[in-house]
Design goal:
disordered N terminus; alpha+beta; 53% helix; 15 helices; two-stranded antiparallel ribbon; 9% strand; six-stranded antiparallel beta sheet
């Protein structure tokens, strides 16, 4: 069920050594700029436990180095040993309640219910939002930009994300991960019911209808702002999407049914972590306004799902993606066209007038692959075993012949 014990050790990235960096660090203790640059390189060379936010991990690394740099020469064994001690101490600290306040581009009247997902409780009940509306919002760097779009912002659905965390950075990491995950599921279920579409010339906006709003604030459980730096404004937020997400009737029923199906399948899946990341990358791709960058990000979602580390090229991706479709030949040919366009755009920046067609076709194939991983009996096998299965021939006659040969080989070797 993808429930592995949490890793509490810092590790060195595969194939890397930090000895030379530590030699340079020891030689430049008093050179602040060089020292900070080396610490940054060290940080990028290490893999920290997932539950430690990057800001906290960098703080722990700095603390460890500061403690020993004036006392003795820091080498790799010393750094790893003492850094792991700091991590264990950090992970044993008590967690505090935090609340992230933000919004989503869902119509305020749409009743979706509160959500418990991962380690967060997401409150979508607008009647409980008032005590978190504070004058501190005005501390946002680009509050004037927010004021210009007040009507748009006030029409969004308020969201409170409740988490327990050790630091405010840890709280932000947990809160945003949980919110992004449920938002990815919502967008996947909404987009999947609309497999085909088009992009009008000059009407550039994300395909996703459910986006996170532009302003976020972090509070304690009583509603008090954590500090002045706990107000965050996204200056790149798109105000171009004309409508707020709102469903009714049969579409609403289907949406909730699919959300329940996806969440249930995720809980049971051997590939839960991979699927969560794939759904979030899928959602991230369709957040992008411009269709060409969105296409590239969506293609990378297919690569995450369908490629092994040892695969030399994307031929296997094409075969595996086509394998799950009844119309194998057509899907395979479509993917060849999509791959050719992707490579031409990446290497020569050649854009296409039919990018909208390409984007929606890739979207549909990606959705089919995610559904296969979620629901098909074979989709719940370990990832590498599943990819081996999808790499088999799509021709029943060839499969039948291979089965016969395998039986003969087994009989011969068993004598």
């Amino acid at each position: 069920m993808d429930k592995k014990p949490s890793n509490t050790q810092v590790k060195l990235r595969e194939g890397l050594s930090i000895e030379r960096l530590l030699i340079s660090l020891n030689e430049n203790i008093d050179e602040t700029f060089i020292r900070e640059e080396i610490i940054g390189l060290l940080f990028n060379s290490l893999i920290f436990p997932e539950e430690i936010a990057d800001e906290d991990a960098l703080f722990l690394l700095r603390t460890t180095i500061k403690r020993y740099e004036k006392i003795e020469i820091i080498d790799q064994p010393l750094l790893m040993r003492e850094l792991n001690k700091e991590i264990r101490h950090f992970l044993n600290e008590l967690e505090t309640k935090y609340v992230l306040m933000t919004s989503i581009t869902m119509h305020w009247s749409f009743e979706i219910g509160n959500v418990k997902i991962k380690d967060a409780y997401i409150d979508l009940s607008s009647r409980r939002i008032n005590r978190f509306r504070t004058k501190d919002w005005g501390k946002a760097t680009d509050f004037a930009e927010l004021e210009r779009h007040r009507d748009y912002f006030m029409d969004l659905k308020p969201v409170l994300v409740h988490v327990k965390a050790r630091t405010k950075y840890h709280a932000l990491q947990k809160a945003f991960y949980s919110l992004e995950l449920i938002r990815a599921i919502w967008n996947f279920c909404d987009n999947e019911r609309r497999p085909y579409g088009f992009l009008l010339p000059g009407k550039v906006h994300p395909i996703n209808e459910i986006l996170i709003g532009p302003l976020h604030t972090l509070h304690d459980s009583s509603g008090k702002l954590i500090d002045d730096s706990s107000v965050f404004f996204n200056p790149y937020f798109s105000y171009k999407k004309p409508e707020r997400f709102l469903l009714s009737g049969r579409a609403k029923e289907l949406f909730f049914k699919n959300v329940h199906t996806v969440r249930t399948a995720l809980r049971k899946s051997h590939n839960r972590s991979l699927l969560e990341k794939s759904l979030m990358r899928y959602s991230s791709a369709l957040d992008i306004e411009l269709p060409h960058p969105a296409f590239l990000e969506l293609w990378s979602t297919l690569e995450m799902l369908l490629l092994k580390d040892e695969d030399k090229n994307t031929n296997d991706l094409l075969k595996r993606a086509a394998f799950i479709h009844d119309d194998y030949a057509r899907v395979y040919e479509d993917l060849k066209i999509l791959r050719a366009f992707r490579n031409d755009y990446v290497h020569r920046q050649n854009e296409s007038e039919v990018i909208g067609v390409f984007l929606y076709r890739l979207k549909r194939i990606t959705e089919n692959c995610i559904w296969f991983f979620l629901l098909n009996t074979y989709g719940n096998k370990p990832h590498k075993e599943l990819l081996d299965f999808m790499s088999l021939s799509h021709e029943p006659a060839i499969l039948k012949e291979k089965i016969s040969l395998l039986k003969e080989a087994y009989k011969f070797r068993s004598q």
